[in-house]
Amino acid sequence: MTDQSKRRLFESHEEIGLCEGDVEILGRIDDTVTLESSFVVHPFVGLIYSPHDFVISKGEVEKIITVPWESLIASNMKQKTREVEREGVIYETPTYEYNGDLIWGATAKMMDNFLDILKRKSPLLEQEK
């Protein structure tokens, strides 16, 4: 595990209670800039093998949305660009919807990047469209 991925796991532990032994780091995806704060996020993809009792840091995370793998790659969960209003500011952003939850901003951008990478690496995912 690289120093950078260890640092990201430190952040994940602070924000959602995820420890190093809870996740296998699979790799890194493209950096993403947040809409509200213009922070640069350096996202990693990891695999959690069993259900995890996440502990949310309310100051940093609003809520955790768990999306099953099958739904993530299913043709009915498509990214759409739309306007999202937050605290009086309107953002034009990629969005995903799952079970009534709207995933938008940097999280939606990271999901979009991850799915694009998967489609390039696996022709089987393209066939599921």
How would you characterize this protein structure?
- The protein is an alpha+beta fold.
- It has two domains: 1-62, no CATH class; 65-129, no CATH class.
- It is 32% helix and 26% strand.
- The chain has helices spanning 3-16, 69-73, 105-121, 123-127, and strands at 24-28, 32-33, 40-41, 44-47, 80-86, 89-98, 101-104.
- A three-stranded antiparallel β-sheet has the order 5-6-7.
- The model has no long low-confidence stretch (mean pLDDT 83).
SSE arrangement, N to C: HEEEEHEEEHH
| Strand content bin | 25-35%
Identify the strand order in the major beta sheet: 5-6-7
Average pLDDT: 83
Describe the structure in brief:
The protein has 129 residues and is of the alpha+beta class. Helix content is 32%, strand content 26%.
List the helices and strands and how they pair.
Blueprint: H1 3-16, E1 24-28, E2 32-33, E3 40-41, E4 44-47, H2 69-73, E5 80-86, E6 89-98, E7 101-104, H3 105-121, H4 123-127
Antiparallel strand pairs: 1-4, 2-3, 5-6, 6-7
Please tag this protein with its features:
129 residues, 2 domains, three-stranded antiparallel beta sheet, two-stranded antiparallel sheet, globular
